[in-house]
Amino acid sequence: MYCTSCGKKREQEEKYCTSCGKKFEEKKEEFQDKETGPKITNYQSEVPIILTGILSLVFLLVPFISIPLAIISICLGISYLHKNHKFSIGSILGIITIIITIFLFLSTLFAVPLFNIITNEIEFPEIEEREDNTSEHFNLTDYSWQGSDMSILTFEGNSRFVWQKDNQNILEGKYQIYNGMDVVTYITTHLEDFGLSSEEGNEYFKDKSSSLENYYLIILSTTNETTYLCGILDDEKKNLSLKDIKTKEEFSFTIKERLGSVDI
User: Fold this and answer.
1) Helices 63-84/47-58 angle, 10° precision
2) Cα dist. 225→177, 254, 262 in Å?
3) 74: burial class by Cβ within 10 Å (0-12, 13-18, 19+)?
4) Is 240 exposed, middle or buried (0-12, 13-18, 19+ CB in 10 A)?
5) Angle (nearest 5°) at CA 258 between 255 and 260
6) Helix residue ranges per DSSP H, the chain
7) In percent, how much of the chain has pLDDT > 90?
8) Which of 170, 188, 204, 236 has the fewest CB atoms within 10 Å of its CB?
9) Secondary structure of residue 38 in the 3-state scheme
10) Could you tell me whether strands 215-221 and 226-233 are parallel, antiparallel, or unpaired per DSSP bridges?
């Protein structure tokens, strides 16, 4: 080695130059522990990476939480890989979370079209469509009814009715209509008003072949009298057979037209 001031050669153990007297600077030699190997000064803990990876899986069904956690664990894992030269379990968990999330998203996206394709290949029995007058929501008052004597019974708004023949009113006033079990209840509780015995009341419901929902009681009230017509609507919902409870007179009606529509 040589003196940086005068250029005289110096011995390694000398602290001052013997020529110019300059003090030599001592350089400390860096060494490594042979037993422990090179010291790692940029060590990074793996614990936060593992925690974020686990949390991303825990919140797997909440994508707006799991995806950010997965991305954080992957980013930390990349930094960990550069500093420690090995993969982190946490970043692997983050990658798994993203893969599962993408799979669930795609499954949901294609589930409906796939279901439609499958169901289209299955032949379901066709349901026979009914006409309006045979629907389950049949309403007696939606139609005008023509009697066998060519009279016309029409139900109007505000619970009013008009019974005409030859364009002249036979009866007009207010109406009430009972259907199904309400008919049975009304008649059995008003037997005395009709002058009927229990046996006579039961005669109105002797037709066991007809469904109870086809039974009707129509009460027509005018200023002078009240007419009680009880009877059965056929299964096709086109023909109505009625009987006056008091006079025993029988009436037959057929649907003429749907109100606001054309003749049937």
Assistant:
1) 160
2) 17, 25, 33
3) buried
4) buried
5) 155
6) 47-58, 63-84, 89-121, 181-189, 191-194, 198-202
7) 3
8) 236
9) coil
10) antiparallel
Examine the pLDDT at 29 and tell me if it is beyond 50.
Answer: no
In angstroms, the CA 93 to CA 72 distance is 11
pLDDT at 174: 92
pLDDT for 122 beyond 80: no
Pick the more confident residue, 228 or 261.
Answer: 228
Per-residue pLDDT of 208-220, as tens digits, reads 556 778 888 899 8
Tokens of residue 129, six digits: 């469509």
